[in-house]
Amino acid sequence: MKLVLFDCDGTLVDSVRLIHEVMARTFVDFGYKRPDISATKSIIGLSLEIAIARMQGKPHVDDEAIAMSAHYKSISPGVRDESDMQTPLFDGIKPLIETLAAHDEILLGAVTGKSRRGLVHTLEVNDFTPYFVVSRTADDCPSKPHPAMVTECCDETGMDPHDTIVIGDAIYDMQMAKAAGATAIGVSWGYASVEELLAAGADAIAHHPNDLLSHIL
Questions:
Q1: What is the DSSP string of 8-44?
Q2: 134 vs 155: CA distance, rounded Å
Q3: What pairs with residue 46 in β-bridges?
Q4: Domains in the chain, ordered, with CATH?
Q5: Sign of dihedral through CA atoms 57, 143, 137, 191?
Q6: What is the pTM of this model?
Q7: How far is it, in rounded angstroms, from Cα 64 to Cα 69?
Q8: Residue 102: Cβ within 10 Å count
Q9: 111: β partners
Q10: Which of 10, 20, 62, 63 is close enough to 169 for a disulfide, judged by CB 3.0 to 4.6 Å?
């Protein structure tokens, strides 16, 4: 048996345009300049309050970051519904998930800095809900790279971290996996560079979803 835990944004779905637009509108609504998209990319994977504080150069989450996080969550559904703000699956993800789900010895899960509502939406619109047997979100655990998302998924499924694979596009995913004692596989189609993923502890790099099969099956 293996437990395979996928990050969501930048790994399953290409959501940077949506995340950046919601983030930019949040900053503007609080009197700040629109951030550059590179700043948004650098925090994808972190829990929202920590991400906003980091983008502002703050060492800790403060009351303003909490208020901006709440505002971000309040406007996100409306922005997501705009016609040019879709979050498509990366090419090859749909058949990958369907292939893995057909193997009884593989358990699939999600570990994400998204809210629970955001993850549920992503799984539902892509017909992935039946395939993912366990998940942890920013609403459930400390932010990545804390290992709790992984260890709690292991506990819930009765799996050992040594039999667990974490797949993600961010340095925080790799750091979280290694902190939990799991295997870390970085994907090059997301928002961090291959060099950054390797430096963060990636055990391997996948350049296409099909590449993951050799590391899992």
A1: -BTTTB--HHHHHHHHHHHHHHTTPPPPPHHHHHHHB
A2: 10
A3: 44
A4: 2-14+88-216 (3.40.50.1000), 16-81 (1.10.150)
A5: positive
A6: 0.95
A7: 8
A8: 9
A9: 136
A10: 10
Mapping DSSP to helix (H, G, I), strand (E, B) and coil, where does residue 209 land?
Answer: helix
Q: What is the DSSP letter of 137?
A: -
Question: pLDDT by residue (tens digit) across 34-76?
Answer: 999 999 999 999 999 999 999 999 999 999 999 999 999 999 9
214 CB-near residues (< 8 Å, 6+ apart): none
| Tokens linked to 168 | 């993600």
Burial 148-164 (b: 16+ CB within 10 A, else e): bbbbbbbeebebebeeb
CA distance 158 to 134: 11
Query: 206: part of which helix (H) or strand (E)?
Result: strand 204-206
Locate 192 and state its tokens.
């961090």
Any idea what DSSP says for residue 142?
A: P
**For helices 16-29 and 63-80, what crossing angle results, to 10°?**
130
pLDDT of residue 83: 81
Q: Which residue has the tokens 């998204």?
A: 114
Residue-by-residue DSSP string for 155-204: HHHT--GGGEEEEESSHHHHHHHHHHT-EEEEETTSSS-HHHHHHTT-SE
Cis peptide before 145 (omega within 30 of 0): yes
16 burial via Cβ count (<10 Å: 0-12, 13-18, 19+): middle
Residue 106 CA to residue 191 CA, distance in Å, equals 27
